[in-house]
Amino acid sequence: MQIERRKFISSACKTCLFAGAGFLISDLIACSTSVKIIHLPITQDSVRFPLTAFATASIQLVRPEGWFYDIAVRKTGTDQFEAILLECTHQQNQLLMISNGYKCNLHGSQFNLNGQVVKGPAERTLKKFLTSLEQGEVVIQLKS
Fold this sequence. Notes:
It contains one helix and eleven strands, in the order αβββββββββββ. By secondary structure, the chain is an alpha+beta fold. The radius of gyration is 20 Å and the shape is elongated.
C-alpha cells in the first residue's frame, strides 16, 4: 500500500505536534505551584516579610524588587529559616519548586530542599542567605 507524500507529511506533523504538546503540558503542570510569590522591596540590603506567612505553608517564595530570581524561604525549626536563591548553578536558569526540592527545566538539574545537587549537570550547591527573626518578621540579608 502506497501513501501519498502529502498525507504522510500531514500525519507525521500531527504526530510531532501532539507529542510536543504533551511535553509542554507536563512542563506547565510542573511549573505551576500553589505557593504564591511574595514581591518585596529591598531596604538596607535585606527584605522582610511577616512570620504569619508560614501559617499555611512551610516554604515561601519571595522575590526582591528588581530581581529575576526567587528566593525559597523554608522554616526549618522554631524561629529558624533557610533562604536559598533559586538560580541554577549550571547555567543560571530560574528553578521551579517540586515536591522534594527544586528543578531546572533547561537541562534537568535537581536540588534537594537544602540546595544540594541531587542530579546534574549542575555541580555546585545553591546560594544561601543569612536569615533572622526580628519583631515577628523574617529578615533575609541579601549581602554576604
